[in-house]
Structures are given as structure tokens and as C-alpha cells.
Amino acid sequence: MRTIAGLNKCMHFEVITIRDIARELGLSVSTVSKALRDSHEISSKTKLLVQDYAREHNYRPNPIAQSLKQGQSKSIGVVVPAINNQFFSQVIDGIESVAYSNGYNVIITQTHERYDMEVQNVEHLVHRSIDGLLISLCTETQNVEHLQKLHRQGLPIVFFDRVSNDIETHKVIADNYKGAYDATSHLLETGYKDIAHITSTANASVTTERLAGYKQALADADVAVQNDYIKFCPNGTDLTAKVETALDELLALNTPPQALFTAWDTITTTVLALLHKRGLRVPQDIALVGFSNTTLADILNPSLTAVHQPGFEMGKTAIEMLLALIKAKYPIEEFETKVLPTQLFVRASSVKA
Amino acid sequence: MRTIAGLNKCMHFEVITIRDIARELGLSVSTVSKALRDSHEISSKTKLLVQDYAREHNYRPNPIAQSLKQGQSKSIGVVVPAINNQFFSQVIDGIESVAYSNGYNVIITQTHERYDMEVQNVEHLVHRSIDGLLISLCTETQNVEHLQKLHRQGLPIVFFDRVSNDIETHKVIADNYKGAYDATSHLLETGYKDIAHITSTANASVTTERLAGYKQALADADVAVQNDYIKFCPNGTDLTAKVETALDELLALNTPPQALFTAWDTITTTVLALLHKRGLRVPQDIALVGFSNTTLADILNPSLTAVHQPGFEMGKTAIEMLLALIKAKYPIEEFETKVLPTQLFVRASSVKA
DNA sequence: TTGTACGCGTTATCAG
DNA sequence: CTGATAACGCGTACAA
Lengths: 353, 353
Fold this sequence. Notes:
about 15% strand; Rossmann fold; alpha/beta; 3 domains; homodimer
């Protein structure tokens, strides 16, 4: 009889250990342990006896003791920029779905797009002895030393969405290049040529790939890339202000863009809100296609043609890869980067007026 | 030298235990342990020796071993309806801020407004031996037996926002009554009399309190309460459809409301989106005041007068209460329900056209 | 001031 | 088939 963590020591409570069962049934601890684990070297009647007793008194093996013994915590750490972001929420849902069914615990932390928070969170998680790490880098992150050290030490790490090229491990990303290519092509096909590109920080894998897709689509349509049509608005607390400035600058150009391609979820939402605030209608006044997983933005502007990232799928894939790494006894030599397809939801109303 | 959880067993890695230090320094384990804990019964030079060595080799006490020894996991469970909800995100931020600085870990789980998920999550968390539980009930929850059992057993529980009257423990809520009263009064003072009330499930503490505030405000202004102005749209996956129906019904009334008071964050957002979709302008076509912590809704419709709940504060308060419960050795007799003030953000444009 | 011995709850090994 | 023993890493009476 023990007092489990979190249960007031002073209260009598039937939290029983394997020892209690042994004593009560006149068996040895190891016999009980084996019986509970359904070992072949235990007679079926003893098993039944033990298992029945355990069920009666709803015995629960102490996970902490198990962890100590087995050298693993059965919990994995997740680091995301922000949980109040539909995309990351979806990823987390995906992670949870697989984790729980595999007996794993998920510890979620947020960086709020701050590098120092990222370092601190990773530190904290590792200190808490997680079995593996799932991480999407924050926009501020320039180098990944804090992760390289751990990776060299053998901590299983899987990157998702915002990945690093400086660490060789499993990664899951969306097909950013194609997503951006499709979005831009759609605008071009609809008849727009002056298409601005609003994106986040320049030094993110996601940005690079989407920018490339945008440029290639223009090139394939023989439209010249105009550098003053490309605006970088790094995610963060002051995103709205940055986007506002970007819009001002774009609209003040000699040939202001007739269409916008917003390359990040948060930016799409912000742009949508700001256009609405300024009384600019989409697509009558200005066309808009953007990456977005935000249902609200969707409901809000049924004319938004959106590039949708497979959040749930990404979460599932990421943790599946991680669990594979964890189960692998020897260091993996070959790492994989899975690319999941994006989906372009075209709305009729995004056709040129 | 041990291989820590999550680090590949096969890789040599300098994760050292208290034992390694002892061996290396020619001391006993307990001396090292005491030295690290800065015990007074250890000479300062030995302490320094040990502590230096520990720092050099960046020794980390194994939290799992500590947990097992001390009978507490230093982690607390959080159950929320959904993390992709600005309000709950803010609460979580508040929780994290206090938890981390107190050496506690936070395990977040979501119910997605489903009762069975709530039961399962709580089960899972307790099984993971958390030291305490922070929970906001989901809309489906009618009875709280799953929590009562644990509470009787002495598990420290603190409710926030969506609380239960059937369990005596610490609780933190917003001043729902006053928030609703203020919102309704604002509309009345602005000149509206026909004010509809769209809210979530009837059997939630939050709903009851806000409904009471709404009714009292009407009563104080000598306006009769009209039951067909009150619509219940329980949160869930099909919320949008329910709200759509509610709006249809309201607008089809003989005297359709000129103003709406939406009593839940999600409902405010949904209504806003649906009005926008229907081309109804706020407040020119219909006035709207609602509970909302959603920045997007805010940016999106600068004319939205919103009742803001103190999410961050609520999270902080909740976990502070929980930590107090955890630290208390003996069962608490007196429980407290903290009520945090809401704030009404009035926008000039919400004045009657 | 330092070291020894034990216990937390579980599992694995080996002996009976 | 069952049971004793050791071990996971740490902390703490108690003994030296």
C-alpha cells in the first residue's frame, strides 16, 4: 500500500503495489510481476488469481518505477512556436493520436517564436528525460547548436515543418515548393501578372522553398520577378505592424500588385484582417491566395483560395518516425525527409472580376 | 555512467550519475548527494570539489529516480477543451509561466469538447502519476464522478473557467455575471432593447452565470426577457451549423433582434464570421457585443465590443492554487473560489447608427 | 565530517 | 512453475 504521487499522504487510499498483492496472496513479488505480465512460466491458475486480485483492487503499475527500471520515460517532448495556431494545433492532434495509442506521453512547449525560449524549452525537456523530441524551429532561430549537441549524444529528434539543414535526422515537411508554385500559377492562370509575395523571415526552410516555388511559377509564365513585390515580415508579436507596413509599401508602388500570395498561415490571416479593415474586398479590389489552415479565415472570407498544409498528417508522420528512431537499437545511418502534399482549395470567387 | 532515457544505448555519452562522481572523486555516494544538496554536514571544500566536478561534467540528477524516491512526479496535468482557442492558450501560457519557475512540468491534454475524451485524459494523466490536476470541463460533461473519485482520494484538483458545483475544491472563474451584465447594459445604454442572447450548452456554470447577468441587466432596464431571444448552441464540431440555425431563427422572428450578445468566445467568432458571410454589417445592420479573447476577431472587426476574460491571470491563479494544495500536508478544509474581473472593451463604432 | 545501508516499485536473472 | 536477489538512481536515517 503506497501513497501515489499527487495523492495526499494523509489519506488512506487503496493504491496498491505489486508487493501488496504478493503479501495478500502469499506469493512472491516476482511471481506477481510475472503473472501480471502474462509470463509463460507461471501457472494459469496463479495468473488468474493474481490478475483477478489486481483488477479487483484496480492495481496500476507505477510508471515512474517502470521508467527508472527500463531507462525510458515513455514521454516525448514537443516544441512548437505557438499552440494558438490552427496548423500547429492540428499537428499536435496528430501527434497525440499516435502517442497515446502507443503508451506515450506528450509534453508540449511553446517558443512564442523566441530563440531563447526554444533553447530553454529544449533544455527543460531533456532535463525531464524525454525519450525523443519533435520540434518545429522558431523564426528567430539561426543556428541549432542546442540541438546538434543533443543529436550527437543520441537523442532521437524529428523535425517537422520548420526544419534545419544542419542536422541529419528524420524530417517531415509539406511540399512547400509545389504549394507555392500552385498558388502562384493559379493567380497567373486567373489572369493576374502583378503578384506580390508576402512571407516571413528569410532564414527559414519554409520561406526559401515557397519563394522558389513562387519565382519558378512566374518564370514559367514569362513574368519577371520584381523584388519590390517580395516582402519579409518575420512572425512575432509585432507581425501585424510589419504586415501593415508591407501593405502600405506595396500599395504605394507605381504599379501596385493586383494580387497577393501570402506564404504563411499567420500572414494570410493578418493580411485578410487588414484588407478587411481598409475596406478592400477580396478579390474585387485585390486578389489573394495564401497558405492557411485557419478555419476562421476560411469561414470569414469564402473567397479565399487557400493552400492547406496537412497538419494532422504531419503530426502523425513525425511521431511515427520518432517512435521508429526510439525503437531502433543502433544509430540510424539513413535519414528520411518526408514531403507531404499540400492542397490548393480554389474558390470560384477568386476568379478575376 | 548511465545512458539516459532517450539517448541511444549504444552511444557512449557522458551522462553521469551521482555514483560516477563518487567513484571518480573517491567519495561515497551519500557524501556526493549531500554535497550537491548543499547540506550543512559537508565540509565546504568537499562541497566545492563535488559541485565543481558536477558542473564540469554537467551532471543532472535523474528526475525519474527523484520522483520515485520522493513520491512525486513534479508534473501537473492540464485538461482543456481545446488548445486552438485563444482563451485557453492564454490560460496555458499563464500556467506554464508559474509551473516552470517552480520546477514543475505541464502535461496538456485536450478533450475536444467530448466527455469520453475528458474521462480518458484524466485517467491517463493520473496513471502517469501527476501531482495535481487543472481542469476546465468540456461542454458535454454532465456529471463529474470521474473527478470525484480522484478528489476523494486526495488528488489536488483546481477547476478553472468551466467549473463543477459538485466538487469542493479551489476554483478560478471570470466574473461571468458581471461580464454579461456589463455587455448587456452597454447595448441597452446604446439604445437597443431587442437583444438576443446566443450561448453554449445550458448545463455549464459559465452559461448559467452569464445568462443571469443578461437577464438582470434587462430587468434593471425594465425590458422583458424574451425566451425566443435566447439560443443554446453547444460547442463542438458542428457549432457553425448550430449557430447558423440559431441566426436563421432569430432573424425570422416577428420582431427580430437588433442586437446580439454572444456569451462564448467561440460563438462570438462564429457569429462574426457568419454575419460577414451574409453581408450583415456590425453594427449598422445588427449590433454585437460578445465574450471574446480572439485577437483575430478583434482585428477583423474593429467594431466588435468585446468582453475579455483574463486568460493569463486565470492560468497563473489556478496553478498557484494548485501548488498550494500540493504543498499542504493535510487535507484542506476551506476551499476558495477566486473570481477574476472581466473587461469590457467598448468600441466607438458599436454605438447605434 | 564522511560512509553504510536501506527503501522507493518494478523487472530481469538465476537458482530452487 | 516459483522465489530470492540484484539492480535502476537517488536521498536519508543511522552508524562510524
